[in-house]
Write a structure and sequence with these properties.
The chain has one domain. Helix 1 runs antiparallel to helix 6. The chain starts with 5 loop residues before the first helix and ends with a strand. With 113 residues, the protein is mostly helical. The longest helix has 19 residues.
């Protein structure tokens, strides 16, 4: 999570007014939950909820500020604009390319250093 600066993510959230429907579970909370699910091969909202609840004492230290529940995750998936996470993915790809020494020169053209 440290490769995505908080201000970059917040710029995406602000651009698409992602936290206007916050209701206790922010875009960052949703990002953390979905990243956790992806990295730990979770297959359903029930699975994500069970695993995160098993570590409930550590969630605050992981960056979660909202309550993790299956209905909250489902509501967040419906309410938050998907373009926030698409822009975030592009930003992470740029960061990855910088880390491995690749400069993107245009659509479809890459140059290795």
């Amino acid at each position: 999570m440290e490769h995505l600066p908080t201000y970059e993510f917040q710029k995406c959230v602000t651009r698409y007014r992602g936290d206007s429907h916050d209701r206790g579970f922010s875009c960052r909370d949703q990002y953390l939950a979905m990243a956790f699910a992806q990295l730990t091969y979770r297959e359903s909202l029930r699975d994500i909820e069970a695993c995160l609840r098993a570590m409930s004492g550590k969630l605050y230290h992981m960056g979660f500020r909202g309550r993790v529940a299956r209905s909250t995750l489902a509501d967040a998936n419906d309410a938050h604009d998907w373009r926030i996470y698409a822009d975030t993915a592009v930003r992470l790809q740029v960061e990855q390319n910088q880390l491995v020494g690749i400069i993107v020169l245009g659509v479809g053209r890459l140059k290795c250093l």
